[in-house]
Design a protein that fits this description.
308 residues, mainly alpha, globular
Length: 308
């Protein structure tokens, strides 16, 4: 039950991120995606640091900078470049390859054996997302594809390094999220001022949208996300990210009256099945765990102490 609650709380982050598209298109001023990313990251990070009253120490200054740049500062601009140069379905599908990137990185960075189980379900998840969001009229562009793949690699590497480095003793998940949000925001700040600037007018509706993206889509969700990374297998966490394009598609169908056909429903089924299956332990590991549990009650207390 503890593991299940951790999975559900972690999954809430990509569910909320799935609302970003409708909030951006329906609430925020057009033509300022970098400003939206900046507002989502920097104020939320400063609030987190103010609440936790903790700053990085020693090596965590550069580690926070690296993680913030990968997870936020580089990922957000690459995401928007991909979205601008590709149809939304193609961009979402490229982002969905992140679990496959993580499945490879855990071998290279964490020196873990490759999990054929999670790698296979990651492929199924990508296929499912593609069926949900891709259209036959989708056009491809080199810049968009490159940005989309680099975005998946950036976020995948950031997630993997977050798992590798963990959290310093006594630092909460909110504290770690705050450091990364500020670092990512500082990367976004010059990019925003150079390429976009500040919107000439921010309405009450836009203010509500920025507040949602910053406090809920930024501070709250990244706290849950980094907490989940510390407690769950990183490959399992990465597959939870598939919920984001699925939620975006579901919201589009409900509120924007975007039709979902048979292929989209099959895609939903495949993607959700992949998400659930990736949270399970492969049968071989379950069998070994079961054998260990069966052996322990047969031992006497003295034998257990001697074995330890």
């Amino acid at each position: 039950m503890h593991r299940l609650s951790t999975i559900l709380l972690t999954a809430f982050a990509p569910v909320v991120w799935g609302t970003t598209y409708i909030v951006t298109t329906e609430f925020l001023p057009a033509g300022h995606p970098l400003f939206a990313s900046l507002v989502r990251a920097l104020p939320a990070g400063l609030i987190a640091i103010a609440l936790t009253r903790m700053l990085p120490q020693g090596a965590w200054w550069w580690k926070s900078a690296v993680l913030g740049a990968l997870n936020i500062g580089a990922f957000f601009p690459l995401l928007f470049v991909s979205a601008y140069h590709l149809p939304g379905g193609v961009a979402a599908t490229l982002g969905a390859v992140q679990p496959l990137v993580v499945a490879v990185l855990v071998v290279i960075v964490l020196h873990e054996p490759i999990s054929a189980w999670r790698l296979s379900w990651g492929v199924v998840g990508v296929i499912g997302v593609a069926l949900v969001v891709l259209r036959s009229s989708a056009a491809l562009g080199t810049i968009g594809i490159t940005a989309g793949l680099l975005g998946a690699v950036s976020m995948g590497l950031g997630v993997t390094l977050t798992k590798k480095w963990g959290r310093p003793a006594g630092v909460s998940a909110m504290g770690l999220a705050g450091w990364q949000l500020v670092a990512g925001g500082l990367v976004l700040l010059p990019l925003t001022l150079i390429f976009e600037g500040i919107p000439a007018q921010i309405s009450d509706t836009a203010l509500a949208g920025y507040t949602w993206l910053g406090l809920i889509g930024g501070l709250f969700t990244y706290t849950l996300w980094f907490s989940g990374i510390s407690r769950l297998p990183v490959a399992s966490v990465a597959v939870l990210g598939l919920l984001s394009p699925l939620v975006a598609a579901a919201i589009g169908a409900i509120f924007l009256r975007q039709n979902l056909g048979i292929a989209q429903m099959i895609g939903f089924t495949l993607a959700l099945t992949a998400i659930v299956a990736s949270q399970l332990t492969p049968g071989r590991d379950q069998t070994r765990a079961g054998v260990r549990r069966k052996k322990i009650p047969a031992l006497g207390i003295a034998q257990i102490r001697n074995a330890s």
